[in-house]
Amino acid sequence: MNHTLLGFVILYLVVSIGIGMYAATKVKNTEDYVAAGRSLPMFLVIAMVFATWFGAETVLGIPATFLQENLGGTISDPFGASLALILFGLFFARKLYRMNLLTLGDFFRKRYNRPVEVVISIAIALSYLGWVSAQVTALGLVFNVLSDNAITQAEGILIGAAVVLLYTLYGGMWSVALTTFVQMTIIVIGLLWISKLVGDMPQVNGIAPVVEHAADAGKFQFWPEANWAAIITFVAGLLTMGFGSVPQQDVFQRSNSSKNETVAVWGTVIGGSAYFLFAAVPIYLTYSATLVDPAMTGELLAQDAQLVLPTFVKTHLPLMAQIVFYGALLSVIMSTASGTLLAPSVTLSENVIKEFMPQHRMSQKKLLWVTRIVVILFSLLVVGYSLWALKSETSIHQMVENAYKVTLACAFVPLVAGLYWKKANNTGAALSIILGLAAWIGMEFIAPEATLPPQFSGFIASAIGMVLGSQLKK
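Below the sequence we write its predicted structure tokens.
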């Protein structure tokens, strides 16, 4: 075990907790905790949008999928994920920012009614289970690699979840904003420097040879085969993330924390575009490993492709590069985990639990503590799901892909119709949710491997329900 490397990683974790604790001093009420007082400038919003999505999936999951399949295998992320951020910035951010909402669930209450708010808020919260668990699982993997198996991945999951919980619990959105800015700096500088080191290796010799080798191996095959089954699967993969990630509290929360609507729009668009472009860096590094050490890569591909990049860095790069890489890796994972842990907890406390509590006794201070209690409870749920996924050998990429099926099936259509269709009403929203969920869940049981994926069936049924319900009852 490299004690120097482990020591620096522990120091990094301590510093992150310290920044989070400092952020807690800025939290005076629920709005500070949830939206950082709607006061963040452009550079912080860009940093939050970029770093929140640039998580374990981007550094470990996407490159592993690229190695095992090809570029088309990454259609859901980064292509779909980037599409969601850019769509949100261009078509949703300005309208939602002007409504002065605290959560996305508030929109569904104002535009429709209380039952619609509760059902969609619960669906949004549940969708985060897979996403946050993917980050926590990746933390467990990192601690396992760093300790040379002295720390099991299950133990690493517990350690990682505890660290993220600690600084998210007290600082809320201020903690996410400040830690993310520091973490994004480490991500960008660290990965670019490591790319330079890898490019200077004689087996690699720059970017062009890696691209040429990947092209010759057929890794840049992107478009599906010319048959309906392949095309539908391809489009569904893009839209599950591209549409399903739009009605999400974490995306809304970052945009809504902006100091004005211009920052809300362009901070999200620029952050999403930067995410798409920078997602190529881990792919480049991971594919370079196949040129530098094909034997190691082949062995790890048979075991777990997600281990290729962290093992390559640990065995082939100097200590300082290892320190920077693992610092950057922890940065991307923790920034994503903290933001996506906060989002469902806020949604549940604001849009579900709060309404069942006596309003005359629900002060801002009490609501803040309720939100923090929900953060703890959701963290426990995430740990449980992560340990189950570890046992069932569910990959990080699969966990992320599964996260947004429910919101595609029942939340996207009511959000779009509520903002852009004046005829949309409560009946339409209710029927949209019922048909969407019924079609999705039913197809998951009846034909989970059907040409038209279950969540896409739910999306189509949801759209039909909105039109029928809104037209039948005016």
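Residues 3-395 form a domain with the Sodium/glucose cotransporter fold (CATH 1.20.1730.10).
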